[in-house]
Amino acid sequence: MTSYHVTEDPIKKVAIFGGTHGNELTGVFLVKHWLENDTEIQRTGLEVKPFITNPRAVKKCTRYIDCDLNRVFDPENLGKKVSKDLPYEVRRAQEINHLFGPKDNEDSYDIIFDLHNTTSNMGCTLILEDSRNDLLIQMFHYIKNSLAPLPCYVYLIEHPSLKYATTRSIAKYPVGKEFPPCAIEVYKIMEKVDYPRNENGDIAALIHPNLQDQDWKPLHPGDPVFLTLEGKSIPLGGDSTVYPVFVNEAAYYEKKEAFAKTTKLILNARSIRSSLH
């Protein structure tokens, strides 16, 4: 007999965010389109709400105004007393948490799709934060199959020191209908790699041409990673093959991240039957 995990509550409310980073325009364009005409995203029995997350940054076409909105949905920032001295994105995070969360509230949204762009060559990527959540794995498996034969990668950021407090973290978790057991390939973050720097803290080497645009491709020990201005190659150290992501991502220069090392894993999920009203 097949066993199923049954969700306690039906999926009723879904939000689609665009403009969490104001210069990532795909989500902005889509959300504005759906705000004018939402027939594409409406489904019977569901409330689907498109939402511009950071309107001031969108207006200026910049990543953020005071601080990164996609990093401030932690209890400390969400619990700060409202004042005009708070950074704009912290105040905005509190507003968004009130509108769509908090996740333990009965009226909070069940799932939030947060749409982003990168300047790195990552293609279609889904970000997973919990390798033990059957519902999330099933949903990602469904999305990957729906997009096939186009590739869709899963980036697992389940790491105690490398996770961050995102907009999507205020929602409950997703999906509806019945799904058989499944498995998905994911790329789990190992560590973030900074650019080589000089004694003043300035970047002293660039991404090597052999690594540029090679997101998700195997990178072996000894392969060139950086290239100094003098033409010297700096190889990958260690003794294991890794898979680089966010290679030369422009938005991460300020975060001192040239790329992130990942390792490839397979995650399995049980059969699920969840109700959808």
Architecture overview:
The protein has five helices and 14 strands. It has helices at 25-36, 55-60, 75-78, 88-100, 134-147, and strands at residues 5-6, 13-18, 47-52, 111-114, 124-128, 152-156, 177-179, 182-193, 205-207, 224-228, 233-235, 243-245, 259-269, 272-274. The strands form four sheets. It has a five-stranded mixed beta sheet. Strands 1-14-7 form a three-stranded mixed beta sheet, with helices on one face. A three-stranded parallel beta sheet has the order 3-2-4. A hairpin with a 4-residue loop joins strand 10 and strand 11. The protein is globular. The two termini are 26 Å apart. The model is unreliable at 1-8 (pLDDT under 50). It comes from Canis lupus dingo.
Bulk shape: globular
Low-confidence stretches: 1-8
Number of strands: 14
Average of the residue pLDDT scores? 89
What share of the residues does DSSP label as strand, in percent? 25-35%
Give the helix tally: 5
Describe the strand arrangement of the main beta sheet, using strand numbers. Answer: 5-6-8-13-12
Between the first and last Cα atoms, what is the distance in angstroms? Answer: 26 Å
Secondary-structure element string: EEHEHHHEEHEEEEEEEEE
Derived structural class: alpha/beta
Rg, alpha carbons:
20 Å
Biggest sheet statistics? 5 strands, mixed
Helix content: 10-25%
Cofactor: Zn(2+)
Pfam families: AstE_AspA_cat (PF24827), AstE_AspA_hybrid (PF04952)
Protein name: Aspartoacylase
Domain AstE/AspA barrel-sandwich hybrid: 183-263
